[in-house]
Design brief:
497 residues, alpha/beta, Rossmann fold, 7-stranded parallel β-sheet, 19 helices, 20 strands, 38% helix, 16% strand
């Protein structure tokens, strides 16, 4: 487990490089088993850890259908950068191997000004990002979708459909019965709690395992923690009931199969670097936390939080070093810098790395602005950076032409291959509550294909602030997901017998 072990105050020594990976990839036995599983199951949930080859398994499964005369026409829904950088390029990774034939599959990406033309061309696979569903389904008319004659659905990073009340789920739901096969894939199926599983499994089995309605699912397996139904607790024994109900649909590796990845980099227990807020920043923070309003001495700006949720966000901003001011109509969003305590910690860590590449994770726009003053030549991947530019940056990163890369976690946390550089360190300038994003981003580097033996995550935490709550939440969510996946692995072992 990532958070197991003792918190360290000093940066540990860097991991040593491993021998270079073989030039030709060889599919593992479990990947062949994954292909057989998907082909044999109309609904399948591929819950495999990051780096286990989910994309390749799905592509080989589609090729197997084609070889057997099934004529698959596949809709793949994925994050935008994954749509451009992973699906069209995965086949090249298998050149010269027994899976080289996945390059025969015709793949078209439905994004950008040519998407109408691309949708009319013949292909085996059409890849679209989540926001593109509105265009594909034409706000509920579905004429374009029908013309494409799609018969297989693949949802890459299926936690995007865990909430059944979202627009994307409501657009997708009427089409589910038209797909002969529905396969989902993710390495983090339970990022928050067991409620996250309902929407994902509904896409797979149309409600057979967990029921037709999320409200019935909640009352069957949970009890409300408050009278408004905002928070729910699992009933005694419900955890095992849910695991048993969904196990027949889940492809999961056994412990023996997991052991074949012993050569991937070890992800060391996080190095938690605690910093203290300077006196003035502490005053601003405490007033926001207690009174939901504060006045900044520099410039005299007043910052008000209208609710406890907004106050928590404002407090998180102060921890990072800045705070947004009240928006004014027709003017760009402005902020005030509050302190540089985290920036100084980042600078110290980078200097200790001796020039080795590192990822620095930021959250808010003002975080990026301060970090770019410290690293003026560092490129960044985040909001507003196109998929084309991001792709070039990732290529440069993997070729060790980028010593420092600034990343916004939600934009790079899923699917991207960033493990080929000499990077051994990820610095979290801005921590997140979202364990899925945390785990997935760390696994962009700590995965097979890396030349490093060990990857370190450095978490910069402001003492006695909301950062401490984020750290505790990540630990709690990791334990919940690990228990869930371990239980499914036990069911997989039972099936093998």
């Amino acid at each position: 487990m990532m958070f197991a072990g003792r918190t360290q105050k000093k940066k540990p020594s860097a991991g040593s490089p491993k021998n270079s990976a073989p030039a030709v990839r060889v599919p593992h036995e479990y990947q062949w088993r994954g292909v057989e599983w998907n082909v044999g199951h109309g609904g399948s949930a591929n819950f495999l850890k990051p780096g286990r080859g989910k994309t390749a398994i799905i592509l080989r499964s589609i090729l197997a259908l084609k070889d057997n005369g099934k004529k698959p026409r596949v809709l793949v829904v994925s994050p935008l950068r994954v749509a451009h950088e992973v699906w069209p390029k995965e086949a090249a990774e298998w050149a010269g191997s027994e899976w080289a034939r996945i390059a025969e599959l015709k793949i078209r990406v439905l994004h950008g000004p040519r998407k109408n033309w691309e949708a009319e061309q013949d292909a085996d696979i059409y890849v679209i990002n989540v926001d593109g569903l509105k265009w594909l389904f034409e706000e509920g008319r579905y004429d374009r979708f029908r013309r494409m004659r799609l018969n297989t659905l693949v949802w890459d990073e299926s936690t995007q459909i865990r909430h059944t009340r979202t627009k994307r789920f409501k657009l997708l739901k009427p089409t589910l019965k038209t797909f002969a096969r529905r396969w989902i894939m993710t390495g983090s199926p339970l990022p928050r709690n067991y409620q996250d599983i309902f929407g994902q499994l509904y896409v797979v089995d149309l409600g057979k395992a967990l029921g037709q309605f999320v409200t019935h699912f909640r009352f069957r397996f949970f009890t409300p923690r408050d009278k408004f139904g905002w928070e729910w607790d699992l009933k005694p024994g419900a955890e095992k009931e849910i695991q048993a109900a969904i196990a027949p649909y889940v492809f999961q590796l056994t412990e023996k199969e997991e052991s074949v990845h012993a050569d991937e980099p070890e992800l060391a227990p996080p190095n938690v670097v605690r910093v203290d807020l300077p006196r003035e920043a502490r005053r601003v923070y405490d007033e926001l936390e207690e009174d939901l309003i504060t006045e900044l001495k520099k410039g005299g700006a007043v910052v008000t939080a209208v609710s406890s949720g907004v106050a928590a966000m404002k407090c998180a901003q102060v921890c990072n070093g800045g705070i947004y001011l009240a928006p004014e109509p027709g003017r760009p969003r402005e902020w005030k810098d509050v302190h540089e305590a985290k920036l100084e910690a980042v600078e110290e860590l980078v200097s200790e790395m001796g020039g080795r590449p590192c990822l620095i994770v930021y959250d808010f726009e003002h975080d990026l602005a301060r970090l770019r003053k410290l690293f003026p030549k560092a490129p960044h991947i985040g909001g507003g950076v196109s998929a084309k530019v991001s792709g070039q940056i990732i290529d440069d990163w993997n070729a060790d032409r980028v010593p420092v890369l600034l990343v916004q976690p939600a934009t790079v946390s899923h699917g991207l291959n960033m493990q080929k550089s000499q990077c051994t360190d990820i610095i979290w300038h801005s921590l997140t509550y979202d364990y899925e994003i945390f785990e997935q981003l760390c696994k962009r580097v700590a995965r097979q294909g890396s030349r490093q033996a060990r990857i370190f995550c450095h978490l910069i935490v402001c003492r006695d602030t909301v950062d401490e709550a984020k750290l505790r939440a990540l630990k709690r969510k990791e334990r919940a997901q690990a228990g869930f996946l371990d239980a499914l692995r036990e069911y997989a072992k039972t099936r093998e017998k």
